[in-house]
Amino acid sequence: MISPAIKGSAFRFVLTMGVVNLFADITYEGGGAINGAFLGSLGAGAAAISMIAGGGEFLGYGVRSIAGYLADRSGRHWLVTFIGYFVNLLAVPAMALATGWPAAAVLVFAERIGRGLRKPTVEAMLSYTTARYGKGWVYAVNSALDETGATLGPLIVAAVLFLGGGYRSAYALLLFSSVLALGSLRLARRRFPLPSRLQDETGQPAQSEHPVQPGDASPRGFPCSYWLFMCAATCFAAGLLSYELISYHLTRTRMATQAGAPLLLAFATGGGVAANLVLGRSYDRFGLKVVLIAVTLSALCAPLMFLGNFSLVLAAIPLLGLGYAVQDTLLKAIIVGVLPPGRRGLAFGLFYTGYGCGWLLGSVAMGLLYERSRVALAVFALGAQLASLPLFWAAQRRVPVR
Question: How many domains does the chain have?
Answer without folding.
Answer: 1
